[in-house]
Amino acid sequence: MTARALVTGTLFRAPERKVSRGGKPYVSATIRVREGDASQFWRVTIFSESAGEEMMSLSDGDAVSAQGAMRAELYRPDDGEPRLSLSIIADQVLALRQPARKREKQPADAPGKSTACTDRSTSARPVSGHRSPYAPHGMHETDRSLDDDIPF
Questions:
Q1: Within a domain: residue 138?
Q2: HEC assignment per residue over the chain
Q3: What is the average per-residue pLDDT within 79-106?
Q4: In this predicted model, which residue has the larger pLDDT, 111 or 14?
Q5: Domain annotation covers residue 55
Q6: Cα-Cα-Cα-Cα dihedral of 18, 20, 25, 30, to 10°?
Q7: Degrees (nearest 5) of the Cα angle 46, 51, 54?
Q8: Radius of gyration of the chain (CA)
Q9: Assign residue 129 a region: left if phi > 0, alpha if psi is -120 to 50, beta otherwise?
Q10: For 112-140, how does the pLDDT look when each residue is reduced to its tens digit (9 = 90+)?
Q11: What CA–CA distances, in Å, run from 112 to 65, 100, 106, 115?
């Protein structure tokens, strides 16, 4: 029986490319999951090429989610206190926000950046075809058919 998990947190250190004893390439990373003042660390192994590339695009501290088969093992280190080792063989990886180095390179007119809807060279009137800041959500300046005189 295999248990599946979805682990969401931040990268504890930058991911690394490695090769297994059988010669298969994989990506190794550690995700830190904070719960109040405590943290859990998940070792992540990724054999999928696309998921590995997504993980390699991230760096230490970036937010990430990984989904796949999980394993939890108890081990006893030299000091004698039993500890829990958590690991996941991820088949899907999702960056939760764009890495900082990609955000910095994004041009000012890129999608997601807001652009002004007014022509500031003459006045603060809306440019034809753009949504008026005073119109209901989704209503444009040219949607005059929806302007009714309500008697109350």
A1: no
A2: CCEEEEEEEEECCCCEEEECCCCCEEEEEEEEEEECCEEEEEEEEECCHHHHHHHHCCCCCCEEEEEEEEEEEEECCCCCCCEEEEEEEEEEEEECCCCHHHHHHCCCCCCCCCCCCECCCCCCCECCCCECCCCCCCCECCCHHHCCCCCC
A3: 80
A4: 14
A5: yes
A6: -50
A7: 120
A8: 25
A9: left
A10: 444 444 444 444 444 444 444 545 555 55
A11: 22, 15, 10, 9
* pLDDT (tens digit per residue) in 13-56: 999 999 999 999 999 999 999 999 999 999 999 999 999 999 99
Q: pTM for the complete prediction?
A: 0.62
Choice among 34-48, 74-88, 135-149 with the minimum mean pLDDT: 135-149
**Residue 43 included in any domain:** yes
| Cα separation, 3 vs 1, whole angstroms | 7
pLDDT given for residue 81 in this prediction: 87
Question: Residue 70 belongs to a domain with what CATH number?
Answer: 2.40.50.140
Is residue 110 assigned to a domain? no
Can you give the residue range of the structural domain that contains 54? 3-97
Number of domains making up the chain:
1
pLDDT at res. 2: 79
